[in-house]
Amino acid sequence: MHNKAKIILQCENLKKSFGATRAVDGCSLEFQEGTITSIIGPNGSGKTTLFNIITGFTPPDSGKVYYKDKDITKLCMKSKSYALADLGIAQSFQLARGFGEMAILESLMVPPTIADDNSLFTVFQLLLPGRKETSRLEREKKAREMLKELGLEEKSAEKLQDQDVGTQKLVELGQIFLLGPSIFLLDEPLAGVSRDKVPILLNHIKGLREMGKTIVMIEHKMEPVLNISDMIYVLVKGKILVNGSPDEIRNDQRVKEAYLGVSSVRTE
Amino acid sequence: MTTPFIAFCLSFLALFLFYVILTLALNLQWGQAGILNFGLVGFVALGAYITAICMLDPSTLEYIDVGFGLPFPIAFVIAIIVTGIIAWLVSAIVRLGLEELAIITLAFAEVVHIAISNETWLTGGTTGIYISSFLDEKLGLLGYNVVFTVVLLVAALLVYYFTTKLNFSQFGRISNAIRQDEIKAKSLGINTVSHRMKVFVIGSMIMAAAGSLYAYFGLRVVPELYPVGLTFAVWIALILGGSGNNRGAVLGIGIYMLMDMLARLYLDIPGHPEIAAGLKFVIIGLLLVILIIRRPEGILGPKRSRYA
User: Fold this and answer.
1) Residue by residue, what is the 3-state secondary structure of A163-215?
2) Counting one residue from A and one from B, how many pairs have CB atoms under 8 Å apart?
């Protein structure tokens, strides 16, 4: 159904070993623009390593990564994760990471949303008396709008570390949204999230797709994955076992055996 | 009150202000950005010695071959810039891995100390370099100390103003973010290594400026003015007062120096001056241990941003 959509991100034969462990063993994946693609697989199947390769935190041993038809393998190899974020590839983490000591509002002001006012030259200009940091108000406004969007307005002054996992993950989603990326790589966005917050997060993720963003997601909660994904890759022991639409995955015998456990899958 | 006593008080105040600048610079590096700089004294010494060498007229001292006879303001600027470049090189070598930098800075300060003690042709070795100041010749003892103190006061206020502004700006926010979670900061498109290098260089330049000013008004540079203990005095003061809080930094160094002076005045056992020196560290150490247990964030606690 998304045949006409453009492939925005492509991994070609990626490999990564840690000692004798082949964490990612020749994976080739394609991600279509404006879709939600989920990567599922048992623990230790290499999903997070695959993510970290794409975001430049773990350099691959071999293979290629293309983003918008451009070879970005070099950036991945050199661990230039910040440069990849600049390009439009943003990542959230399995265990929500933020800046816990900061107020929620301020943690949303960290992403470099406004043209760099961080150079040494600008810094020394601060020495001049009466010089105001003009970008701060603009930044604060953007952060407040984001808080409203996330429905966390009344918590703006509270510290991030005092929040429940669901809120932390929401803030994390807000932070990476402020970067304006085209691809969201979400590593278990629902892990540890309380039941009442799951639908809120899922709505935001679906909202991103409606905005034309591409979402790549690792997730263990099967129901949401099967419900919202357009495409699913099943990773087992660093290799792609099978890929297809949610329905195909639901009915695939190999997946049932390798990952889901035959009895746990309802056939609808 | 006698003139020498007032002059003594003023020079003590000047020393305090000198330490205040160093503590503020360390707070910029450690308190805000989490950079471990164990070589603080090395940058201070560099600032001082570069100033002295730039100002020295080599014809006046026969054991030193190098000197440029420049006026103080030019020497001051050169000292800051050259130290900045050296700090940049030091941080570039290790690409600012935090643990590596802690070790490298410690070693760096030691290298500086050994170099200034032994390269007699350049630094005068253990004799050091005398700096001649026109102020010294024109003003009396009291007048000189007044000028000295006022200049350092202005410098300390400027550094306080600048570092506070810096810490509460986007620049400081990013430092704070990197200190808390570097991986997360990187994933948000922040070039963490380059940012930390900037912080390290700015902090080191402030240290050099303090060293340069203090050397000029102290009229002499000798290696024993720059012992490793200076680094740790500043560290103790910052942890005492509260890392990540400029007011805490000033308070911390105030308490440290007050204790230092009281120990000198009242712990003095006639005939055994070494006991006072030792006891001082015992007391400071004890205080630090109690503080770390009872109030690990320091007396004032952190104040890194306007939002929290």
Assistant:
1) CCHHHHHHHHHHHHHHCCCCEEEEECCCCCCCCCCHHHHHHHHHHHHHCCCEE
2) 110
* Tally of structural domains, chain A: 1
Who's near B281: CB < 8 A, 6+ residues apart? none
In a domain, A78, yes or no: yes
The pTM of the full predicted model, rounded to 2 decimals, is: 0.90
Instruction: Note the pLDDT of residue A130.
Output: 66
C-beta of residue A34 within 8 angstroms of C-beta of residue A40: no
- Output the pLDDT for position A69: 86
**Interchain proximity B188–A98, CB inside 8 Å:** no
Say which CATH number the domain at A82 has.
Answer: 3.40.50.300
- Low-confidence spans in chain A with pLDDT less than 50: 1-3, 263, 265-268
What residues pair up with A66 in beta bridges, in sequence order? A10, A71
- Restricting to A residues 154-173, those with a Cβ less than 8 Å away from any Cβ of B are 157, 159
pLDDT for position B283:
82
Alpha helices in B168-245 (DSSP H): 170-180, 182-187, 192-218, 228-241
Q: For B117, what's the count of Cα atoms within 13 Å in the CB-facing half-sphere? A: 12
Find the residue in B nearest to A88 (Cα). Answer: B189
User: What is d(CA B36, CA B196) in angstroms, rounded to the nearest whole number?
Assistant: 11
CB atoms within 10 A of CB B224: 9
Residues of chain B with pLDDT under 50: none
A91-132 pLDDT per residue, tens: 999 888 889 999 999 999 998 877 655 666 777 776 676 666
Q: For residue A6, what are its two tokens?
A: 């453009």
Which H or E run contains A65?
Answer: strand A62-67
Tokens of A237: 């022991």
A110 and B190 within 8 Å at the Cβ level: the answer is yes
CA distance A127 to chain B (A): 6
The range of the structural domain enclosing residue A242 comes to 7-98+181-264
Question: Would you say residue A157 lies in a domain?
Answer: no
Is residue A143 assigned to a domain?
no
Q: Is residue A52 situated within a structural domain? A: yes
